[in-house]
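Researcher: Next sequence.
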Amino acid sequence: MARLLTAARLRFCGLETLVDDAILIVSELVTNAIQHGDGAQVTFTMTVRDGFLRLAVHDETPSRPIVCHADADADAEHGRGLFIVNCLAAAHDGTWGTSDDGTTTWCCLAVPGGRP
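Model: Next structure:
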């Protein structure tokens, strides 16, 4: 559902060029929250402000996610999510991180043309 909402809202706002990468980021952040979080609720927010698209997932679990590298096995099913988020953020002149209490993981992407 978060992927569908992300795509629809970005298209509505005229930000089609960010749709594919934003959907992948949202998918990775939500999946990470579900697989590794202890909270009963996962929430997702998306805002565009000051020339950046901010995607954030809150899961009530006070622990910081870390970037891992998948096993050398090319068929490994886990371990690439935050690495992908990091790479996509960098490709869009953005960044990612967590809130001070570790309950929210976010990613910011520069909006093409710096639109608000």
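Model: The beta strands are 43-49, 52-58, 95-98, 104-110. The radius of gyration is 14 Å.
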